[in-house]
Each structure stands twice: as C-alpha cells, then as structure tokens.
Design a protein that fits this description.
Length: about 450
C-alpha cells in the first residue's frame, strides 16, 4: 500500500515539474489514446451487433419463407384434397337432369321465385335451394347462381299462393335417398313428393302445355250483395245459384284478350291473349261449420293476377254489382275495372306435359311426366297443410268477407280514365308482390 502511494506521488511530482508546461501534455496524450481505444471498441461492438442483427434477420427470413412454404403446401394439399373429393363425388354421384314434384302452403311466403337482393322477402325457392345445398344435391356456389344447375320452375306462383303439383327442373347429384335427404332440410309446409329423370334439354316452363289451378272459397262469396255477412256459417249455396255461377265461368272458355285481368298490358299486346280450356265450380262442402266450394280452371298459361280477377268479376256479377255483359266487354279494347279476389284460396293443382309424354314417354328410356303414383301423397299433403291453412286463415282473418266489402267502390261502367285509376292501384300492389308474372 505505502509503496504504491510513493510511486504515485513520485509520478505526480515528475509530471508537475515537466519542462514543456507540466502535466497537460501528458494527460492530452493519454486522453487521445483512450478516445481512440473507445472508438475502436464501439466500432467493433457495432460491427458485432450488425453481424448479429443480420444473422437474426436471415434466420427470421428463413423461418418466414419456410412457414409460408409450409402454409402454401397445406393450402395446395387441402385444395387438391377438396378437388379430389369433389371429383370423387362427381364420379360417384354425377349430375343428372331431373324434375321434382313440389307441394307447399304459400302462407307467409312471397311467392315461389327467388328474388336476389331481397332476402327479407322469403320465398319457396329460398327454402328449396337451401335444402338442396344442405343435402349435398348441389354445390354451395350453385345457390347464388341458379343457372349453373339449369333451374326452372313451371309456374311463378304469387304471394300467399299454394301448390300441390308444382314441378321444377334442374341438374343435381342423384345421391342415395335423394327425396328423403332433401325433405330432411325443408319445413313441414314444403315437401318434395317425387323425382323423375328427364331429357337434357328439358325445361319445366317451356315444356309445360297447360296448368290447372284450384281456388277454395267460402260460398258466401256468391250471396246477394244485401246478405248479412255476419251470418257466414248459416249461408248455403242454392243449386240454381251454382248453375248461374258455372254459366258465367263457361264464358271464359276459349281464347280471349285478358289485358283487363292483369296490369301493364296494352289491349293490342299479343301476349294478353290466353287460352282457357276449363273453368267450373264444384259442389259445396262443409269445413269448420262454414260452407266452401272449389273452383277449377285449366289454361295454357296465366298472367299475373289473371285467375283471381276472373273469379272476382264473376263474384261481382253473381252478387248483383255488375251485369253479365261486363265479362265480354272486358275482352275489348276499353279499360274495365275488374276486382281481384284474395290470393289465400288459390292453389296450383297440376301441370301438364302432354307433348313431352307423347314424344318421350313411350320410348323405353324416359318416364312419363304424370304423377298418378303420387296421388295419395298429394291428397294427404293438401289435407294436412293446404286446406286447413285456407280454412283457419279465412275463419280468423275473414279475407273474403273483407274483400267483398270493397266491391261497391268499383265502377263496372267506368270510363277508361276511371278504370286507369284503379289499374294504378293494382300496379302498386303488383310492385309489392315482387314482379311474379303468373298467379
């Protein structure tokens, strides 16, 4: 310890007595050497850190590339696997052109046809397509583009209208128990009742020769205009009144210009001419203490609201609001104010493919498109889901009686201008019905 202090003191004394200004020069020399040494150390450390950082970045980049490569491999493998499974499905269950016989109660639905972009308006096809996807009968992407499965319905039934014999054509995978698998994903009020193979070029709308509709209504609709509508349960249709009704319906048979029985059709529009082969009212029956009857009409095709207006005009004549001559006058060029009966009781009963059956039904390769084997199933569905809904809704809401109360406001001798006012009202209702072009 003492030796070290002595040496340090001697060194200080020597520095103090230096010839060139004392210790400043010595400390300056030591300071510069120290700075050079520190700089060298810092540079060395920086180089080492850069080397470490570069090495880390290289490792990270390598790991990232490896991860991306592995992810790409997984995606490629998954895609190949999916494509392989899809190809296997296509091989195992190739797509075939078929028709489905569909029955449904239309209450609560905005018609048959799907309306893209208006998901709040639920339709029968929305439910059907969803069931086809869930049952794997069609790929999921076919749901948004129905053309991919060549989908076509025979008739675009209107809001609230039911069907016992709707037919749609499409391409689907014929999986095991196809009909049962589809029905597993449908609500009780919609059901596929049958399936048949058809030719590749078959189109259920274009190949349809005729359509038969039924309209179920309380017979009080044919009462005289001064009848007390509060006594519906007591009303019974007289045989002579039924005969009068059928005489009026028979006037519709043949080809006529029905431009007054729809909207936005000019009198000279060729498409307004429609061919009716049958129209009549059946014998009345009791259901829920109320007397009902069923009107049957068969025609080549029908325009929007045509059937409901045909029935509405006959009711107006029977009740005494209009004269019989108004029916024939409605086929002329003048606008006639034709009332539209409620949609509740209208049912697409059957569609006909006579020409197709004649050409392909007996060739030994294709099935005839008739549904005689499903008659009992169709009847059971109507009795379980369609008729009870019509009767219950009529009893609860009284749609026919409410509509009858509007008949006095119609002017059956209306000029073209007055009738156009009513037609504008119908046009607004048609817009609300989302543009279906047939009943």
């Amino acid at each position: 310890m003492f030796k070290t202090r002595s040496l340090f003191s001697a060194l200080v004394n020597r520095l103090t007595l230096g010839r060139n200004g004392g210790p400043r020069e010595v400390f300056s020399t030591m300071s510069e050497a120290s700075r050079d040494e520190q700089t060298a150390k810092l540079l060395k450390r920086a180089n080492e850190e850069n080397e470490d950082s570069a090495e880390k970045e290289t490792v990270q980049a390598s790991k990232k590339l490896k991860s991306e490569g592995e992810h790409a491999d997984v995606q490629a493998t998954t895609k190949l696997k999916a494509e392989g499974e899809h190809a296997d499905d296509e091989k195992k269950y190739p797509k075939k052109k078929v028709v489905l016989l569909v029955a449904y109660s239309g209450k609560g639905y905005y018609g048959m046809q799907r309306n893209p972009g208006t998901s709040q308006f639920r339709t029968i096809e929305d439910e059907l397509v969803n069931a086809l996807i869930k049952s794997t009968c069609i790929p999921e992407n076919h749901g948004d583009e129905m053309k991919k499965m060549s989908f076509q319905r025979c008739a675009r039934t209107d809001k609230g209208v039911s069907a016992a014999g709707q037919v749609v054509s499409l391409k689907l995978r014929l999986i095991e128990d196809t009909v049962e698998k589809i029905n597993e994903h449908l609500p009780p009020q919609i059901k596929v009742l049958g399936l048949k193979r058809v030719t590749q070029g078959f189109n259920s709308k274009n190949n349809c020769d005729a359509r038969t509709y039924a309209y179920m209504l309380p017979t009080v609709a044919f009462s005289l205009k001064d009848y007390d509508t509060g006594a519906i349960a007591a009303f019974r249709l007289k045989p002579e009144t039924l005969q009068q009704v059928n005489c009026l319906f028979s006037l519709y048979k043949g080809t006529h210009n029905f431009h007054n029985f729809t909207s936005q059709k000019a009198p000279n529009d060729p498409s307004a001419r429609r061919y009716i082969t049958e129209m009549s009212c059946g014998e009345p029956f009791i259901n829920g203490n109320i007397q009902f009857a069923v009107i049957t009409v068969r025609g080549q095709s029908f325009m929007l609201h045509q059937i409901r207006k045909m029935i509405g005009l006959v009711i107006a004549v029977t009740k005494g609001y209009a004269k019989e001559e108004v029916i024939e006058r409605s086929w002329g060029h003048d606008k006639v104010d034709v009332p539209k009966a409620p949609g509740l009781g209208l049912v697409l009963e059957k569609v006909h493919f006579d020409r197709y059956n004649k050409r392909f039904g007996g060739d030994g390769l294709h099935e005839r498109l008739d549904w005689d084997g499903e008659e009992e199933t169709i009847k059971a569905f109507k009795e379980a889901h369609i008729y009870p809904t019509i009767v219950e809704t009529e009893c609860q809401e009284g749609s026919m009686v409410s509509w009858m109360s509007t008949l006095p406001i119609h002017d059956f001798k209306a000029t073209a201008t007055a009738a156009e006012t009513q037609d504008n009202k119908d046009q607004k209702e048609d817009t609300a019905d989302l543009g279906n072009d047939s009943d």
